[in-house]
Design a protein that fits this description.
single chain, about 160 residues, mainly alpha, 5 helices, about 0% strand, elongated
C-alpha cells in the first residue's frame, strides 16, 4: 500500500516534533533544570519537586515517543526500518523507566530518605542526587539515568535516520 506524499509529509512533521520534544525535555530535565535546582533549592523542597517533575517528564515523553514510533512507521512504510526500530527502542526504554524503574527508584529513595530523617541526618540536594539516600536508592537512581541514556541514544539514532544521506 502506497501512502500519498501529504500523509508522509504530515508524518514527518509529527515525527520531528515528537522527537524534538522527547529529546529536548529529557536533556533539559537531566542536564539543565536539575543541576540548576541543586544549587538553588533546599533538599526538602528539591526532592518532592523532582519527583513530581520526573513523573510529568516520563508521562509526556512517553506520549511523544508513541507518536514518534507511529509517525516513523508511516514514513518508512515498515516497522523494521532502522529509524522505526530506533524509535521503538527509545519508546521501550522510556516505558520501562516510566512504569518500572522510575517508580522503583522513587520508592527506594522515599524509604531511605525517611530513614535518614528518622536518624536526624540532613544533606544537600547535591548529596542526595549523587549518593542517593542509601545504596539501594543510589543503584536505582543510576538505573533511571542509564535507561534515560538508552532512550536518548534511540532518539539520536532515529534522528540520524532522518538525514538525507
Amino acid at each position: 500500500m502506497s501512502l500519498n506524499t501529504t500523509t508522509v509529509s504530515i508524518a514527518l512533521i509529527i515525527d520531528m516534533f515528537a522527537m524534538s520534544f522527547a529529546f529536548g525535555s529529557t536533556v533539559w530535565f537531566f542536564f539543565v533544570q536539575s543541576p540548576a535546582m541543586f544549587k538553588h533549592v533546599v533538599r526538602e523542597e528539591f526532592v518532592p519537586l523532582q519527583m513530581r517533575m520526573g513523573k510529568l517528564l516520563f508521562t509526556s515523553a512517553l506520549v511523544a515517543l508513541a507518536l514518534l514510533v507511529a509517525a516513523s512507521v508511516v514514513q518508512s512504510g515498515s516497522v523494521t526500518a532502522w529509524g522505526s526500530v530506533a524509535a521503538a527502542a527509545a519508546l521501550l526504554f522510556g516505558a520501562l523507566n516510566k512504569f518500572f524503574i522510575f517508580p522503583m527508584a522513587l520508592r527506594a529513595g522515599g524509604e531511605s530518605h525517611q530513614m535518614k530523617e528518622g536518624r536526624g541526618e540532613t544533606g544537600s540536594p547535591v548529596e542526595f542526587a549523587s549518593e542517593g539516600a542509601g545504596k539501594s536508592a543510589t543503584a536505582k537512581h543510576r538505573l533511571v539515568v542509564l535507561f534515560v541514556v538508552a532512550m536518548v541514544a534511540g532518539l539520536v539514532t532515529h534522528g540520524i535516520s532522518l538525514l538525507p544521506i
